[in-house]
């Protein structure tokens, strides 16, 4: 059993969780400790104790530690990618890419540790100067989902440590192996004991302990809207700082003037890669009626070329759904779409492969409209629907008609429509002739409406959550 990591030591759990390979359910990736509320409280106490030490560490010491973590992640990206693909079901190229991205994120925030800034300004009153500085938030509880088991932890842990905070990390139950491998690397980076802690376990035990503890100053959470609302209520009751990234039902508009090949690739990459298990997936394809037939024909032809299979097979384009429970949810939504009157134009079938796994062919609905559940609710699987639109204005209205607002895309060759879309799409991120899924780590990530709450993640904007501002007045 792989243990938790608390106060600089590996600590066994009272129970263990078996990590099952979704590409081959006969394959057990490993047994991982299952912590409880007591484990979480021990980790919080250790983080609280280590806080002053790490907060007072020099920027160079922080930078060196994060750079070492990033370097090892990059050096081991192939092995880590294979592990990620095995436990989560992401295709091997995507998994290796995610491991590399995690390393790049740590290296970026190593630089951020050295770029801590402030302001020295004159007061409005004579003889007084003002300094505006940033200080660490304190102990940060980090709760991450299963769909990016290295990438999302990296973009939360790295800025937390870079800005002098201490961390208690609770990964999703489905992906303990990637979290443990990341922790093992962090454990050798020279951080003081307690500055970083890993507690694997159930949300109702470990996660709730983080939410309720008055020694946890901030919570950074990525997950579902329903869970996010619960996180917010628990943390707000004790006035803890909260940062949340939640769901999405992202639109991709395809206008009549779009390059059809570009539009099809944007749709395939956004809706189906990573098995559609991304909060930025473009599950609503809003297409001008004048090219609707050509687009659907081209998209279905492209879907027919995608190979669904074992995530570790280099020829696989789309791996399995992450778990049996998620597969059941996907199939239920496919049935709901048909019951609502949409036409299943391609896929949506459970597949059999050489090994027992959670395989599903990419599903495409047509004859859909924006009031259908498949067009309003986040499915989190390889399922998309085509919604016809009467020109740009109608397409934009349909795109904005959602409770979510994470990512929104448009395919067009018109600078007029591209610029208008950037200003009027109700989303935190807009993409023109680019897939809605994906982003760069040096710029902010986040959405609007029910998709996000609190400060943005990634890039230089991460400092807004992981620090608190102090204004100091000095009389000469």
Task: Describe the protein's architecture and organization.
This protein has 476 residues and is of the alpha/beta class. Helix content is 39%, strand content 24%. The protein is built from 15 helices and 24 strands. It has helices at 37-55, 59-75, 77-88, 92-114, 151-162, 176-186, 203-212, 225-236, 260-271, 292-303, 324-339, 373-376, 391-400, 415-424, 463-466; strands spanning 4-6, 9-11, 15-21, 24-34, 119-122, 128-136, 139-143, 166-170, 196-198, 218-222, 241-245, 251-254, 284-288, 343-346, 350-351, 359-360, 363-366, 383-389, 404-405, 407-411, 429-432, 448-449, 452-453, 467-475. It has a 7-stranded mixed sheet with strand order 14-17-18-13-12-20-21, sandwiched between helices. Strands 9-8-7-10-11-23 form a 6-stranded mixed sheet, with helices on both faces. Strands 5-6-24 form a 3-stranded antiparallel sheet. A hairpin with a 5-residue loop joins strand 5 and strand 6 (128-136). Helix 2 (59-75) runs antiparallel to helix 4, helix 4 packs parallel to helix 5 and helix 9 (260-271) packs across helix 10 (292-303).
The major sheet is characterized as:
7 strands, mixed
Q: What is the mean predicted local confidence, pLDDT?
A: 97
Report the principal-axis shape.
globular
Count of alpha and pi helical runs: 15
Query: What's the end-to-end separation, in Å?
Result: 61 Å
Strand order of the largest sheet: 14-17-18-13-12-20-21
Radius of gyration over C-alpha positions, nearest whole angstrom: 23 Å
Look at the helices and sheets and give the structural class.
alpha/beta
Strand content: 15-25%
Total strand segments? 24
Unreliable stretches: none
Which range best describes the helical content: under 10%, 10-25%, 25-40%, 40-55%, 55-70% or over 70%? 25-40%
């Amino acid at each position: 059993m792989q243990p938790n990591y608390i106060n600089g030591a590996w600590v066994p759990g009272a129970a263990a969780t078996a990590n099952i390979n979704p590409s081959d359910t006969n394959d057990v990736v490993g047994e991982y400790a299952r912590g409880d509320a007591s484990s979480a409280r021990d980790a919080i106490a250790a983080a609280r104790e280590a806080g002053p030490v790490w907060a007072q560490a020099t920027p160079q010491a922080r930078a060196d530690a994060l750079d070492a973590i990033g370097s090892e992640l990059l050096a081991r990206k192939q092995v880590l990618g294979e592990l990620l693909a095995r436990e989560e079901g992401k295709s091997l190229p995507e998994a290796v890419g995610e491991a590399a991205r995690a390393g790049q994120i740590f290296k970026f925030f190593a630089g951020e540790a050295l770029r801590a800034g402030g302001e020295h300004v004159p007061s409005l009153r004579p003889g007084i100067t003002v300094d505006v500085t940033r200080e660490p938030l304190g102990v940060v509880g980090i709760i991450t989902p299963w769909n990016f088991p290295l990438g999302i932890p990296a973009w939360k842990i790295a800025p937390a440590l870079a800005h002098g905070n201490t961390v208690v990390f609770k990964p999703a139950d489905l992906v303990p192996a990637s979290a443990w491998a990341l922790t093992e690397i962090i454990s050798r980076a020279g951080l003081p004991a307690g500055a970083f802690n890993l507690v694997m376990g159930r949300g109702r035990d470990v996660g709730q302990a983080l939410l309720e503890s008055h020694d946890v100053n901030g919570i950074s959470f990525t997950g579902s809207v329903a869970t996010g609302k619960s996180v917010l209520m628990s943390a707000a009751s004790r006035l803890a700082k909260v940062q949340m990234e939640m769901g999405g039902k992202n639109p991709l508009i395809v206008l009549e003037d779009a390059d059809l090949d570009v539009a099809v690739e944007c749709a395939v990459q956004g809706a189906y890669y990573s098995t559609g298990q991304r909060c930025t997936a473009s599950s609503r394809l809003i297409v001008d009626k004048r090219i609707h037939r050509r687009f659907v024909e081209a998209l279905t032809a492209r879907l027919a070329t995608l190979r669904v299979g074992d995530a570790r097979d280099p020829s696989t384009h789309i791996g399995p759904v992450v778990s049996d429970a998620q597969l059941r949810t996907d199939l239920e939504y496919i049935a709901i779409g048909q019951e609502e009157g949409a036409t299943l134009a391609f896929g949506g079938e459970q597949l059999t492969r050489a090994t027992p796994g959670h395989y599903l062919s990419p599903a495409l609905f047509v004859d859909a409209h924006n009031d259908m559940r498949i067009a309003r609710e986040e499915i989190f699987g390889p399922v998309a629907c085509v919604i016809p639109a009467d020109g740009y204005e109608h397409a934009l209205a349909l795109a904005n008609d959602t409770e979510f607002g994470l990512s929104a895309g448009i395919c067009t060759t018109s600078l007029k429509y591209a610029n208008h879309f950037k200003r009027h799409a109700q989303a935190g991120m807009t993409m023109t002739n680019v897939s809605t899924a994906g982003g760069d780590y040096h710029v902010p990530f986040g959405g609007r409406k029910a998709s996000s709450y609190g400060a943005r993640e990634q890039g230089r904007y991460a400092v807004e959550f992981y620090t608190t501002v102090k204004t100091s007045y000095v009389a000469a």
